[in-house]
Amino acid sequence: MSGFLKLNLKDLSKGLVVAILGAVLISFKEALDGNGLEFASYDWKAIFDFAWQAATVYLAKNLLTDSQGKVLGKF
Q1: Cα–Cα distance measured from residue 1 to residue 14, given in angstroms and rounded to the nearest whole number
Q2: DSSP designation for 32
Q3: What is the value of pTM for the model shown?
Q4: What would the pLDDT profile of 21-74 be if each residue is shown by its tens digit?
Q5: Does the residue 21 lie in any domain?
């Protein structure tokens, strides 16, 4: 974990993993909602929107926590 207001390569790689897992989970949701394995019928825009938003939130959380996990360096 990097310091307060800093990101390192490990944070970025974990953010990428969060984005990929988010996209996979939303794809499973699309399949369960009745689209089955017909990938063309998936709402890809919503899937990718969720993925980048999840990664952004994860990186923002890491940016605002210090190396001990305190939010804004205080809590």
Answers
A1: 10
A2: I
A3: 0.73
A4: 988 988 888 888 876 777 787 888 988 999 999 999 999 988 888 877 787 766
A5: yes
